[in-house]
Design goal:
Elements lengths: L1 E5 L2 E7 L2 H13 L6 E9 L5 H14 L5 E6 L2 E6 L9 E3 L5 H12 L11 E7 L4 E9 L5 H19 L12 H12 L3 H12 L16 H9 L7 E2 L6 E7 L2 H14 L3 H16 L5 E8 L5 H5 L6 E8 L6 H17 L5 H12 L5 E2 L4 E5 L16 E6 L8 E7 L6 E8 L5 H20 L5 H7 L1
Parallel strand pairs: 6-7, 11-14, 14-16
Antiparallel strand pairs: 1-2, 2-5, 3-8, 3-15, 4-5, 7-8, 9-13, 10-17, 11-12, 16-17
Helix pairs in contact: 2-4, 9-11, 9-13
């Protein structure tokens, strides 16, 4: 911690956490600052929204959620973060009610591609929105170094429930979030060579004693084989994970019945949905790599195990490789247990700095700069928008949107979340549109569903049988 003079006021400034440094290094590499925009919309089918009251609730949310008041500036060579005491910016109302809905969302997508800057400026933007068909709500753009998806959902939940508390009878006031600064200080204490950090470092450095991993493709096009030929190195095992940075999002909605079947399977066998998704992905990658047994998937870990972690906002995502070697005679259920055990071990040591580990991995195996072993990152967001409202809040229809920022630093990134209407699954594929074809995404989604549902239909089927049927 150090003191900074900002516009004549002395503020307490703090270094970035490991989760924030991941984003800082990424955007420094590509120099496209809109990469760190997360833009979402949350709308309720309710014609009589009192926007003056909603504006009050947003201002209250700014005050309660410390990470919504974060600023980042460069202090010499290093970025630092600090809080401003209040947010008194205008909160606009934009009326799209007479627009075509697709045109309104296109306009908000345009907003989402305008970068937020780390120069002491605000790192979020909130606009109250009127849409056609009596849908009204909020558009919110935040900088990823200040908020992640859990924090965003928490903010929406607080504002919505506060609004309902003010406008309807017999509604309890929402509980305020926890302190971002309190959690930040714990994270920085961990990084100061704490015993916990030393234990985690030991775990990850021991991974380097294992044989070198191998890149497996996310489509029938095997980019590793192409790179081996280009470099004249038939033994190369790592591959580049990015190409042209211009990005788009393709969304697939899993139907209601298979969504229910997946949820029921998870409940019956006490297997987390994330483990099923990870096994599905690694089975598809194995298929595209000629039934390769050694497969790695990059797993986004939210690190929100305590009440303070879960309710303090901020960004807490660490990205870790989940590597499994699964023999073809292994049953689907046993393979799930292997994935779950690997995931649990990873989660116990997820606080360690992933950038440090990635650097050590590349150096240890001699992988070419910019290459890696995971073709895709998976994020599973278990909180549905429908769960945001308290039980006593009047029944309302919801609509949520995720707007692309137009840039990606990975060929393809898979996010699975729940629909706000029926709790079914939505599969969001963010992809570099000039490097990845829609046909490749279509095949990935098709084979992913095939692998998952072949398995949950009969968990005693072997991975080899599922691969043969794919």
């Amino acid at each position: 911690m150090k003191e900074l003079n900002v516009n004549g006021a002395v503020v307490q400034a703090y270094p970035l956490t490991a989760a924030q440094r991941i984003h800082f290094y990424t955007v420094s590499a590509c120099q496209r600052h809109e990469l760190l925009n997360i833009a979402t919309g949350f709308y309720i089918e309710f014609a009589d929204v009192d926007f003056d009251t909603l504006r009050e609730c947003i201002r209250d949310g700014y005050q309660k959620f410390e990470s919504m008041r974060l600023r980042i500036v460069m202090d010499g060579e290093a970025p630092v973060q600090y809080l401003v005491p209040t947010e008194d910016r205008e909160i606009k109302l934009v009326d799209f009610s007479h627009w075509r809905e697709e045109d309104a969302h296109a306009e908000m997508t345009r907003w989402s591609k305008i970068p937020l800057h780390m120069d002491g400026s605000p790192l979020n933007e909130i606009v109250m929105i009127k849409l056609p068909n009596n849908y009204n709500g909020l558009y919110m753009k935040v900088h990823h170094m200040t908020m992640d998806s859990t924090a965003i959902i928490g903010f929406y939940s607080y504002v919505l429930n506060l609004y309902c508390y003010k406008k309807f009878e017999n509604i309890e006031a929402p509980k305020p979030p926890k302190s971002y600064l309190a959690q930040l200080k714990l994270d920085l204490a961990y990084e100061d060579n704490s015993p916990a950090m030393q234990r985690d470092e030991k775990f990850w450095m021991e991974k380097l004693n294992e044989p070198e991993p191998i890149y497996t493709p996310f489509s029938p096009r095997n980019r590793l084989l192409e790179l081996r030929e280009q470099m004249g190195n038939p033994n190369l095992r790592a591959c580049y994970g990015t190409g042209d940075l211009e990005a788009d999002i393709k969304v697939y909605e899993l139907e209601d019945e298979p969504s229910k079947a997946l949820l029921q399977f998870s409940k019956d066998y006490h297997i987390p949905i994330a483990s099923v998704l990870l096994l599905g992905l690694r089975t598809v990658f194995s298929h595209f790599a000629g039934n390769e047994k050694d497969v790695s998937v990059k797993n986004a870990v939210a690190r929100r195990g305590t009440l303070l972690e879960s309710q303090s906002g901020g960004t807490r995502i660490h990205f870790w490789p989940l590597r499994t070697v699964i023999e073809p005679e292994t049953t689907f259920l046993d393979a799930l247990k292997i994935v779950q055990a690997k995931e649990n071990a990873l989660l116990r040591h997820a606080n360690y700095d992933p950038i440090r580990y990635m650097g050590a991995t590349g150096e240890h195996y001699g992988a070419p700069r910019g290459t890696g072993y995971e073709c895709t990152t998976l994020t599973y967001q278990p909180v549905s928008a429908a769960s945001l409202k308290g039980r006593a809040i009047p029944d309302m229809n919801f609509m949520s949107k995720w707007y692309t920022n137009g840039v990606a630093m990975q060929l393809i990134y898979v996010t699975v979340m729940h629909r706000p209407t029926d709790n079914g699954f939505s599969f969001h594929f963010e992809y570099e549109k000039n490097s990845v074809s829609l046909d490749e995404i279509e095949k990935l989604y098709f084979y992913l569903c095939r692998a998952i549902f072949r398995g949950i239909e009969d968990p005693n089927r072997t991975i080899g049988e599922i691969l043969d049927w794919m």
